[in-house]
Specification:
Length: 68
């Protein structure tokens, strides 16, 4: 395997399609948080929350995303 510099990796990612860049972004997000116990605990807590008062409709979710 030929080692790549960070600049080579950035250039390669920049040449990917938007869909492929989204996949890379999701992969890096998962990689960053995979070994973070606080993040894992937060996700587990949210996934196990059965109180519908805490849930968002798809429209509310989209609205919150648009605000960021």
């Amino acid at each position: 395997m030929i080692p790549m510099s960070v600049e080579d990796i950035k250039h390669s990612i920049a040449s990917l399609s938007a869909t492929e860049q989204s996949e890379v972004s999701a992969f890096l997000f998962r990689l960053r948080h995979a070994s973070d116990p606080d993040y894992q605990e937060c996700v587990a807590s949210r996934l196990s929350d059965r109180d519908t008062a805490h849930w968002l409709t798809p429209e509310e979710f989209e609205h919150k995303l648009d605000q960021k």
